[in-house]
Fold this sequence. Notes:
Order of helices and strands: HHHHEEHHEEHH
Strand content: 5-15%
CATH architecture: Roll
Shape: globular
Structural class: alpha+beta
CATH class: Alpha Beta
Number of helices: 8
Amino acid sequence: MPREVNARVNGSIDSWLDEFTESGRGAPEPLSRPAGALPYCSLTRQAIALHPLARLGWGQGLITVAEVGLEPAHALAPWASLAAAAQCMLQDESDFMPVCDEDDKLLGVVTVDAVLFSVAGDRKVPNVAAVLTTQIPTCAPYSVLVDAVRTMFACHLRKIPVVGDAGDLLGLLTMSEASAASVRDPAVAEVIECFASSPSLFARPMR
């Protein structure tokens, strides 16, 4: 075994993976995260695990999230009721609703699961702030689109909040818009093709 390869095998596997696979995915993780983003959840950290899912020739991606049309975000106020959240979910055909403060800063989301658990358990929930989920995947306008698409697939999401550096909610990136943009970005097209043919895509429904 060559000395260089042997040193890498005996050394830190994590650092070697970072060095190798970073050229096969999009921007480094810190560069794809807005400064004001909410904390990662364990599922999101698994979603952005370093795996070269796109060919190295176009691994960095060609377009960013800012170059794709975003869906307007119909955010709720923290004092909104669960009934209002459920109505908005029905209207937008979504499984979660963003919750923002008066300055449009994203505080978290209220999910359809939280609404169902509250109703099924006959809980008296005063507002959506009581069932707020703060650890959610997000992306920035300057995030590479292929990174956002990988996160959506791995977290089984049909849309993902786009957050500015100040934590303000700019809109929602939808899978349909990302798919339409795949004709301009081979990396996005390949990731969609790989996930579409994977059995893991059907492990649970896209939300």
